[in-house]
Fold these 2 entries.
Entry 1:
Amino acid sequence: MENREILGFEALIRSNIGHPEQLFEMARREDRLFDLDTQSVLRAVSQCSQVISGRKNQLFVNIYPSTLLHHEFHAFLDELVFQRSAGLDIVFEINEAIEEFDRWTELLDRGIVNLLHKKAILIAFDDVGEGAISLKQLVDFEPDYIKLSKYFTNGLEHSQGKQRMIRMLAEFCSGGSSELIVEGIETERQFYILEQMGVVYGQGYLFAKPQPLEELVFVNPIL
């Protein structure tokens, strides 16, 4: 965050049907979750590859554990790798939906994490500290990025407890293979405190708000 250089962008879904979670739950009920999930990822990667071709960037996209375990996932992964531009690194933010919590062990048992790394696909855990992700999973999976929930940023100026938790995770990441991204940064004061605590990467409205592709290089930058 020190020089505010862009690390990457997060692709977000917007639909006139309703909230994205409603859209995906509808797809789950109709047994079309894999189709919606994979087509969303492919479209994001295709559009982003056209815009930032020739520049080094990372694109964060959400994906469900059941998609990673689907029998057609390998074919999808080959197509995805073929579509991405040379300068684009893809980061899978694994969705922590409670309906799929029992699938996480399978990701390790079936070697999905190793497969992704062989294909140069990075892994991120989102909403850490507030969602379903446990400390055990942080150790077992060793994700490339740990995205700390914005709960810990909101009011951190007045909370020693939140500051201690952020320092703990920053120290954990500094000695391992994971990088910490703190979400929900909205003020210069929050930015300053996090920077003093050794946080390297951040995301939030202080840097940019979500915007359509045609209005910005891409949406929701991560610094």
Note: The chain has a mean pLDDT of 89.
Entry 2:
Amino acid sequence: MHSQLRFTAWFKDPAPDAEKDDVISRSVVGWRESDGAAMVLLDEKSGRVVPAVEQDGFVEIERLPDERPLGVVPGDGWRVSQTKQGPVRDSARTAAAFIVYADHVVPVVNLPTGGDYRGAWKAGEWQLLEPHE
């Protein structure tokens, strides 16, 4: 399976009111042929692309995770329940399926409560229940 690698460049936040550890990111849009330097779009209006490492406040280049699903498996009666939400029976939701990614799994249920509509499923907030539990 071909994986498209994605990278981002991190910079110290130049805003006058930024805290010491505040950072901003810019997507790496390519690599300079002569030396392999990561290139970022500096100005969208002009389309100017510059080496990230040569910009003020450069911190690091980070490889982003591959967010494409590897597959889907049926829920087969498994349920998920939010932790700290009272009795398990009251908060359990049947998973119709599980979307499998390279580094995590997301149960397919109705939209979670609490405004988490991006599909993120933090293991610390949910528990996986066997069928008939």
Note: The chain is about 5% helix and 40% strand.
